Amino acid sequence: MSTSTTTAPPSTSPAVNSRARVIVASLIGTSIEFYDFYAYATAAVLVFPTLFFANADPTVALLSSFAVFGVAFIARPVGSIVFGHFGDRIGRKNTLIASLLTMGIGTFLIGCLPAATVPGWHVTAPTILVILRFAQGFGLGGEWSGAALLATENAPANKRAIYGTFPQLGAPIGFMIANGLFLILNLTMSAAAFASWGWRIPFLGSAILVIIGLYARFRLIETPAFTAVKEAGQVSKLPLGRVFRTSWRQVILGTFIMLATYTLFYLMTTFTLTYGTTASTAATAAKAAGKPFSAAAFVPGLGYTRTQFLLMLIVGVAFFGIFTLVSGPLAERFGRRKMLMAVTAGILVFGFLFVPLFSAGFAGAQGLLILGFILMGLTFGPMGAILPELFPANVRYTGSAISYNVSSILGAAVAPFIAVALWGAAHGSTVLVGVYLSAMALITLVALFLSRETRDVDYSANLS
After folding, report:
1. In whole angstroms, how far apart are CA 323 and each of 315, 319, 372?
2. Nearest to residue 107, comparing CAs of 28, 30, 177, 210?
């Protein structure tokens, strides 16, 4: 792309992406990423159990829907290896474009998929849904890391953590767009119409966001760090082999540093929606309908309507966005490691508040969502800086992508599934769900304790 450097002397610094361009290109990609995933997560709770697993017991149908939700997380490490390879071989820009296209096409096609209740699609529809979820996860495997590198490798000195919050802000924005759209649809159409075709609109509408994202990314120029790697002749021929040969310890630490964040993230967005919208009279209704009943299959929830609880979630996510932005300056001032250790200790304590807050009526439930999303913003924001900073520039895309996405399996893919199982095992209490979150936070605390501070690493010249 042309720049305004034609009249500059030979010693002028290479052209770089403007701050506005970096913000838009990194933010739009992760906003689409989380929009896509929230759209599925919301549909997985609200309509997919009956559309694609209608012949199953209600709890089995819900667990099946969450299992398909987890398929994308299994695909993410595969995508991280493939897109990480090209991100460290050919550059950040083109790899980001390819990952966005892969993810966007998968999401759009989910909106075109017939339900399993359509004759001839009983087996085919769930099978294709699994394939499309895999495609979503495969594309996502390269999306986050590329966006984080785009932001931090273009950041001025002493502002990497601040710039690193740009892609992270896509999470609350994507949530707001996806769930806001579901909320509007829920308010403007009947339940029958929503279950029949209205649920497709968020998936089909993702095409608009993908087009905007592609436009922003085509206008980028390559990051200074990757340009320096090429000029030094240090481009890795096989980044995957090199990262495990030179940075295997950082891969392990990065994976577990992200663990508590992922677990909290999906408990707050997916499990709470299930718990909040499950009626406490489910067992009575099941008996009245003549369906089999067991305490493990039907457990009491809060009993809010979908509209009520989506509004409660949106209020909580507003705090998520605010504290994501707050986290950047804090991570610059106190260092990534020290700040994250304090926040992770807070997450550990928060796990023991599930029962008392969920038992305290509307104020308690809303307070739990707000507190959980505040912690989410504070822990998620610095990840855009700390994970890439763990790795040398010539394997940074691969290393940070593998850590981020392997952690997605350990902390996110199984989180809704385990939470529902623990909820049932405790006969309706969320005590075990909170203990599960606290245990994951403890593992992250150990990983942070074993890691080093990365605030002052030489980000561009650091090579393996």
Report:
1. 13, 6, 11
2. 210
Query: What digits encode the pLDDT tens for the residues 204-251?
Result: 988 888 888 888 888 888 888 898 899 888 898 999 999 999 999 999
Count CB neighbours of 296 within 10 A.
13
Which residues, 6 or more positions from 79, have their beta carbon under 8 angstroms from its beta carbon?
99, 102, 137, 138, 139, 140, 141, 142, 401, 405
For residue 48 the two structure tokens come to 């997919």
Contact (Cβ atoms closer than 8 angstroms) between residue 17 and residue 151: no
Fold adopted by 19-450: Growth Hormone; Chain: A; (1.20.1250)
Q: Are the C-beta atoms of residues 463 and 266 closer than 8 Å to each other?
A: no
Average pLDDT of each block of 10 consecutive residues along the chain (464 residues)? 42 65 86 79 76 72 73 86 94 91 90 86 85 89 91 91 94 87 84 84 89 88 89 90 94 97 90 82 48 48 84 94 96 96 98 92 95 97 96 94 91 82 84 95 98 87 64
For residues 211-229, one letter each, b for 16 or more C-beta atoms within 10 angstroms of the residue's C-beta and e for the rest, the string is eebbebbeebbbbbbbbbb
Angle at 453 between CA 451 and CA 454, to 5 degrees: 110
Query: Half-sphere exposure of 219 toward its Cβ, with a 13 Å CA cutoff?
Result: 15
For 434, the token pair is 């909170």
Q: How far apart are CA 446 and CA 410, in angstroms?
A: 16
Distances (CA, A) of 198 to 43, 112, 172, 335, 413: 11, 12, 23, 46, 26
Q: Which two tokens stand for residue 252?
A: 């392990």
In degrees, to the nearest 5, what angle opens at C-alpha 125 toward C-alphas 307 and 65? 45
Chain centroid, CA 295 distance in Å: 32
| 301: phi then psi, degrees, rounded to nearest 5 | -120, -160
Number of other residues whose CB lies within 10 A of the CB of residue 435: 15
Q: How far is CA 314 from CA 34, 74, 220, 273, 395, in A?
A: 14, 28, 32, 11, 37
Picking from 146, 201, 189, 158, the residue whose alpha carbon sits closest to that of residue 28 is: 146
Distance CA 199, CA 50 (A): 12
Furthest CA-CA distance within the chain: 83
Q: Which residue has the tokens 């695909």?
A: 75
Instruction: For residue 88, give the nearest of 289, 323, 388 by alpha carbon.
Output: 388
Q: Which tokens hold the place of 171?
A: 């999470």
Residue from 168, 51, 133, 422 nearest 271 by CA: 422
**Which tokens belong to 92?**
């950040």
Cα 187 → chain centroid: 27
AA letter at 420: V
CA distance 125 to 265: 29
Q: Which residue ranges make up each domain of the chain?
A: 19-450
